[in-house]
Specification:
The chain is of the alpha+beta class and 380 residues long. It has helices spanning 12-19, 88-99, 117-122, 126-140, 148-176, 181-185, 189-193, 196-206, 235-245, 250-257, 264-276, 310-315, 322-325, 346-349, 376-379; strands at residues 42-46, 49-53, 57-63, 67-74, 210-213, 216-219, 224-226, 291-295, 298-304, 331-332, 337-338, 360-366, 369-374. The strands form five sheets. The protein has a four-stranded antiparallel sheet with strand order 3-4-9-8, covered by helices on one side. A three-stranded antiparallel sheet has the order 5-6-7, covered by helices on one side. Strands 1-2 form a two-stranded antiparallel ribbon.
Length: 380
């Protein structure tokens, strides 16, 4: 897809291109185990041979009774491809990007219980988060004894989250099952790739919410679209068909078909809390209290309790340069500015050419050929 952005790539191939340019916070060994002491290096045996692993950071873990703190010490003197030095501010920026409520990339660090994260993402107090989260869960469980405005909000936001996941499903089907396009639709791969409506039709056939015969798509709800005449379904038609198949059960849909990093109900729940429980004082929640900048090369992340998955999600955080992907005029750690406007990652997502501390520089992509060159700052 030529979306070589370490935060927002949509295909694994594009992610691999980004990864040779942009390093992650921690390395893993040949068995996929995290290397905690990247600065000092760790030697581990694999198939009878010792290998030494080094990286850009060392992580120490302090597991207490109620919280766990991960402290990251970055390697000093590491240069990005343009010669700027990697510092704690770049890590802070990267963390806030993937923890922003509008982030749609593959990293799922937001699912970890980082102290203050829910309050920041929803701009609500902890009390309001719990109150409206409980209301959402109650409605999801079939409860109807709630204010009509809350019931309407629930229905609207679940529908929106379900539709968003279907959009992701369409993109996934197009990339994963391209070899079946002509067989299932009667159109060429190029024709379908250039027409959003045909892409939706193809995904509906795969999803068994529609069938195509003689160039006409017929959905399970009885709607007909003459594809040969240019009549194609919209994503809303896909939603109505999917809703019909699963009887309105968003959880059942996601279990069977979902592709988003967050379930439909989880995504809708966060939006529900955001829409109904925000702090009316207007002051909001300015930062994630569990993320702290200790000094120019040290950052700590504190979670409630302990989860074995947290370190793996932290390890995969891209060390992306703030000055390249973000807006330095919008970064002021002490005043709760993190390199972009809260809730607006558009300029970061639009930056498709990767740049980081990795061994290679992205040159260009043309005629299905990728051109890379050596990153001199890395080899120094």
């Amino acid at each position: 897809n030529q979306k070589f952005n370490p935060f927002f790539y949509t295909l694994a191939y594009d992610g691999e291109v980004a990864s040779v340019c942009v390093d992650t916070l921690l390395e893993s060994d040949r068995e996929g185990v995290v290397v905690y002491d990247g600065l000092g290096g760790e030697t581990r045996e694999y198939n009878g041979t010792d290998y030494t692993y080094e990286g850009l950071a060392t992580c120490t873990v302090d597991q207490g009774e109620e919280t766990t703190t991960y402290t990251f010490q970055l390697r000093e003197g590491v240069l990005f491809a343009d010669g700027e030095e990697l510092t704690a501010d770049d890590l802070i920026f990267s963390l806030y990007v993937i923890l922003d409520p509008t982030f749609t990339g593959i990293q799922t660090l937001y699912s970890e219980d980082i102290v203050g994260l829910n309050a920041y993402r929803t701009q609500t107090s902890d009390a309001a988060y719990e109150e409206y989260g409980a209301i959402f869960d109650g409605i999801a469980a079939g409860g109807s004894d709630y204010d009509q405005a809350l019931l309407d909000s629930y229905a609207e936001l679940v529908a929106a989250a379900w539709t968003d996941d279907l959009s992701a499903l369409v993109a996934s089907d197009l990339s994963s099952y391209a070899d079946y396009i002509e067989e299932y639709t009667g159109f060429t791969a190029d024709e379908v790739g250039a027409d959003e409506g045909l892409q939706i039709a193809f995904s509906m056939v795969l999803d068994e919410t529609g069938t195509i015969a003689d160039g006409v798509l017929t959905t399970v709800t009885g709607e007909a679209f003459d594809l040969s005449a240019g009549e194609t379904p919209a994503i809303g038609d896909f939603y109505e068909a999917s809703y019909s198949v699963y009887g309105g059960d968003a959880a059942a849909y996601y279990e069977a078909e979902g592709v988003g990093s967050s379930t439909v109900l989880d995504a809708a729940k966060e939006e529900f809390i955001l829409a109904n429980g925000q702090d009316e004082s207007g002051e909001g929640v300015p930062n994630i209290s569990g993320i702290q900048k200790i000094d120019d090369y040290t950052v700590s992340v504190t979670t409630n309790g302990f989860s074995a998955t947290t370190i793996y999600k932290l390890a995969s955080v891209p060390l992306a340069p703030l000055h390249y992907y973000g807006d330095e005029s919008l970064y002021d750690y002490e005043n709760n500015q993190f390199g972009f406007a809260y809730g607006d990652l558009s300029s970061i997502e639009d930056n498709l050419e990767p740049m980081g501390t990795g061994p290679y520089l992205f040159d260009r992509y043309e005629n299905r050929t990728l051109y890379l060159s050596a990153n001199e700052n890395y080899w120094k």
